[in-house]
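lol forgot to send this yesterday, sorry. struct tokens for the thing we talked abt
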């Protein structure tokens, strides 16, 4: 499979945008700088996956998105990822990465395989109970590493024909991480951005992507002065919310990076009783 220049450019845009946002929003500088290191690794891993796959099939003959992981390609790179996290992450995550690096390949395969089969389909981070922090940290160590693999598989699979409005990703059956408003005509068209493979698909504007509520008075939208291009789209029926990056207001925004900078919006939503449909890579 030929390496997608567009996909690699996407990684470069995320990295550049995160670096700029770290300067613009000092309160978010540390997580954004950490993210730039992760995104750089992901870009390199995506390139490696594409090159090593060569002429072999991208997925198994069944055509299923979540076919067995290609550990021959992935495992040699995992120690480097753990070392990167150990050297740059906050203490709890750094400590978890160091511990996992000592557990060896059997533990790595178990963790990665579990996330590959279940990741994106539910958001354990948003409903953690006391004492469950460690599982969330380990989930990051799988999610951050496997995202380029998921993006590679997603790019190789044609988008299926969509007859209705899908609430989950039509490629990998995962929840949406973000909404994205893209310019169209005199307004914007809404897309959902997958939490697992980053695929985007069109979705109705006045519709809750969590429960299907479509009464406009039950779907309030909040915008903070600090982030005029980011909408907090809430549902008063299910008390879930979707953060949406409005490219009609800021064409320079990059969904993944701008979302990570919007820490105050997460705090606001939590204080007002709303839970995110799926948290971002850093658990916000």
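and heres what i got for the seq, position by position
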């Amino acid at each position: 499979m030929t390496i997608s220049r567009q996909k690699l450019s996407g990684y470069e845009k995320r990295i550049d945008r995160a670096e700029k946002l770290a300067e613009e929003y000092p309160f978010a500088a540390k997580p954004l700088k950490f993210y730039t290191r992760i995104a750089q690794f992901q870009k390199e891993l995506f390139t490696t996956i594409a090159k090593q796959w060569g002429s072999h099939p991208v997925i198994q003959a069944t055509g299923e998105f979540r076919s067995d992981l290609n550990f021959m390609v992935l495992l040699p790179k995992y120690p480097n990822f753990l070392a990167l996290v150990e050297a740059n992450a906050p203490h709890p995550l750094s400590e978890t990465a160091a511990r996992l690096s000592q557990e060896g390949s059997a533990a790595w395969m178990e963790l990665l395989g579990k996330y590959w089969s279940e990741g994106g389909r539910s958001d354990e981070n948003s409903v953690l109970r006391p004492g469950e922090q460690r599982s969330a940290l380990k989930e990051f160590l799988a999610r951050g590493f496997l995202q380029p693999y998921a993006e590679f598989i997603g790019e190789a699979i044609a988008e299926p024909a969509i007859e209705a409005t899908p609430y989950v990703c039509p490629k990998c059956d995962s929840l949406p991480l973000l909404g994205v408003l893209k310019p169209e005509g005199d307004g914007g068209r809404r897309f959902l951005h997958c939490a697992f493979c980053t695929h985007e698909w069109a979705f109705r504007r006045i519709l809750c992507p969590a429960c299907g509520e479509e009464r406009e008075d039950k779907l309030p939208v909040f915008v903070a002065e600090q982030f005029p291009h980011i909408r907090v789209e809430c549902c008063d029926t299910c008390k879930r919310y979707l953060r949406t990056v409005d490219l009609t207001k800021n064409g320079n925004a990059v969904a993944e990076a701008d979302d990570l900078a919007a820490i105050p919006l997460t705090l606001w939503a939590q204080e007002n009783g709303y839970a995110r449909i799926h948290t971002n890579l850093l658990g916000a």
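Confidence is low (pLDDT under 50) at residues 125-134. anyway ping me if u want another try
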